[in-house]
């Protein structure tokens, strides 16, 4: 018996909306909006931080 998901055509299951971030770790600085903790996330070479309490999100640029 084979177990798995049946995705629509063009969907692989590795999309961010399905699989989530490639990695996630605590970020050392607090949110500049509400002061709560930030979480650093990454997906396919892109990196950003998100607040665990409010809608704050900021892209990180490691090339600079």
From TrEMBL:
Record's protein name: Uncharacterized protein
């Amino acid at each position: 018996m084979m177990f798995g998901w049946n995705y629509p055509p063009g969907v692989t299951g590795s999309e961010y909306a399905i699989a989530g971030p490639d990695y996630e770790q605590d970020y050392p600085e607090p949110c500049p909006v509400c002061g709560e903790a930030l979480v650093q996330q990454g997906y396919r070479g892109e990196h950003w931080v998100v607040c665990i309490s409010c809608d704050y999100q900021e892209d990180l640029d490691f090339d600079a």
